[in-house]
Amino acid sequence: MDEPANLFMNGQFASKYDDLIQEQNWYGPEILFGMMFEYIRSGQKILDIGIGTGLSATAFHILGLEVFGLDYSYEMLKICEQKGIAADLKQFDLNDSPLPYPNHFFDHISANAVLYFIANLDNLFCEISRIIKKKGIWAFIVEPRNDLSEDPIVEKPPGKNGLITFRHSRRYISGLLRNNGFRLLKELEFVAKNFQMEGKPISFTLYIAES
Questions:
Q1: Segments forming the whole domain that contains residue 32
Q2: Cα dihedral sign for 42, 94, 198, 162?
Q3: CATH code, domain carrying 43
Q4: What is the Cα–Cα distance from 55 to 114, expressed in whole angstroms?
Q5: Under a CB-based contact definition with an 8 Å cutoff, are residues 15 and 79 in contact?
Q6: Among 47, 86, 187, 201, which residue's CB has the most CB atoms within a 10 Å radius?
Q7: How many structural domains compose the chain?
């Protein structure tokens, strides 16, 4: 297991994760929930990919959705379980396939702060298409590739925490959605000013797509 993985498997880090995110003023969960709100309703099943401690899933639970979650970190999942917001939690490496669910099982699927840890998203998007119901919403956040390079996926240098992340171009994401039967409904770029690279705030892009 490499050093970045060790960070998320560390119980001390997991116990402080919610406070660290609050200190960084990361509003990804609120933005994602707000952009999905018009499409969701109580009683539906939603899968949170990279659920972590449940920061993004909490609002869906409060609204009355049945929350399912996947995450690599057992320590993070333990904290999420203690919050009582999820009907089912599974430890899973998103680089593996297939996802551990039957066809067309979920009404909606979301991913807040995890896809930029994965370089190639092709298999994951194919699996999302398999397990989501028709007319379901697939909502996710990536760090966009904004330059004119032909390379659709760029590996960033490790940050202060040692984690390696990836940027994905709009062309790459649009192709994944189209090739897996999704229709793009909304797209929003926002800036997280407390997350910086070379002294500049990092921007993120939220996509809302319908299966």
A1: 3-210
A2: positive
A3: 3.40.50.150
A4: 13
A5: yes
A6: 47
A7: 1
Q: Decide if 88 contacts 69 (C-beta within 8 A).
A: yes
Q: Which of 102, 77, 97, 73 is nearest to 88 (CA)?
A: 77
CB atoms within 10 A of CB 182: 22
Q: Report the 10 Å Cβ neighbour count for 64.
A: 11
Residue with the larger pLDDT of the pair 180 and 203: 180
CA gap 134, 10 in Å, rounded: 38
Interval 76-114: pLDDT, tens: 999 999 999 999 999 999 999 999 999 999 999 999 989
CB 53 within 8 A of CB 79: yes
Residue whose pair of structure tokens reads 């297991």 in the numeric block: 1
Q: Name the strand (E) or helix (H) holding 189.
A: strand 183-197
Mean pLDDT of the 163-189 span: 95
Contacts of 147 (CB under 8 A, 6+ apart): none
Q: Which run of H or of E encompasses 23?
A: helix 11-23
